[in-house]
Amino acid sequence: MKTKWVRCTILALLIASCAPAAAPTPKPAAPAPTRAPAAEAPAAKPAVPATTPKPAAEQPRYGGNLTIAHSADTGHLDLQRTKGPLHALVGPAYSGILQWDTNGPEKVAPDLAEKWEASPDGKVYTFQLRKDVKWHDGKAFTVADAKFSIDRLTEKASAHAAMLLAVEKAEAPDPNTLKLSLKYPSASLPVQLANSYLSIFPKHVIEAKGDMKRDLVGTGAFKLKAYNPDISLELVKNENYFAKGLPYLDGVTFHFIRDRTTQLAAFRTGNAKITSLGLPLNKAEADAMRQQSPNAVIHPVNRLRGLIFSNNMTVSPWNDVRVRRAVFLAWDRQAAIKVVGQGVGEIGATMLAGAYALPKEEALKLPGFRQPKDADRAEAKKLLAEAGQAGGFAIRILVRADYPEDFKLAEFATDQLKVLGIAATVDGQSGGVFLERRFQGNFQSLAEGAVLDNTDPNGASRHFATPTERGFSDPEIDRLFAQQSQTLDPGERKKIVRQMELRLIDQAWYVMSHWSENYLFAWSEVKNGNPKEPGPTNNSRFIRDIWLAK
Asked: What's the pTM value of the predicted model, to 2 decimals?
């Protein structure tokens, strides 16, 4: 028996998403003004006491070393060749063509490019580059470096080629101009170029050494002092940084501390002045820190971090959409927020955020999101029976052991799957092993916190553009992804993205458990220590602008 599952609901949503908006309700006419009564003679006013002048704002100070408790070493320093959280370490040493504007989240600002413009058809972007930039080794930055980096980022070996799918070729028509010709119009190209994963690398170093795995030569605010694998990464101030007056700090030291308890102890004792953006801290840890260390500043961080449960769709039984749909239906997202998120978090349909995401009120009407769970779980068991899996099966869930929130998600998944007769065990691995297996597709099931760099749909390309690490390709999703990427009108683009999101739900590529809420801890002397960027990857300016009050 074939199930209709969410198709009818999805069809209704698709029709609604394409319908014209209702006409706005006319505003009532403003009431006629009334005449004020004649004023009485004013009484004598008492003398106004002198006001106490406001204290002058604290001015930035130069000097000091910022120490950061970082979760783990990533094994090498080549940002263009990894999808792991290396950006949190080496981002302050690099610059990009563009960067995020910390004064206006979701807006991009100049970096190596002083200005840029797009052709009327959106297929050619021209960037005018700075003339006063030097690499950390003293050599001049040139347009050849920018072209070389774009070419390297679009290669098959690049970990981030999906961000630049639109780019057909990079050219250097003159010594200070970078020209990017696109295969199709792309309104989101500047958003992608602001991502610190797309930092510009030195052509001369890579041509001499083959990669940047043991080198850190950038144009950013900090340069390499020492890299001690599994111990620390030390950066020092770049005195020749092109943004005059910056950075304020003399240096930054990342201490690699795998054990969670030791990480937090390093912060409480002052051996670390700030916790790393690569280290998601949860509500319980934030509450405990408020009690134990009242002088600590707790910053909620807009990480755009979704907790998702996914499966390797190249292997049985996950290559059967009915099995995936069964898990999607059975998952209790509201319970996940209570248990995994400790009461904080938001419902999300897929790894799409902001204006392009399926609104929460619409998602809650879909099968899989509704409460109570009885009807969804009954339907899930029917789907498993149709797929020949009524007796259940056994799986192992790969998870990063040093991320407590992710580990809690894996444990929660075992309970959710048990309802369907699926016996799951948690396979906790260290950061390096987890990342290697995860990106090689060497897993049955996966519990992870997946982070978006921005709210543009192309920023979530690794969750939509195929093939993915989860081993699945869907021609319809590919078609819709390509169509929305090429659509310049925001309203039309939203309609296409809505269709793509509903198709993703129908194919149950993954269970979006919920958006998590995370925190960053900093001591009160750390100023400008609250990142305002839309995601954690864009931290190069965040670290650059920090100063220490003592």
From this structure: 0.77
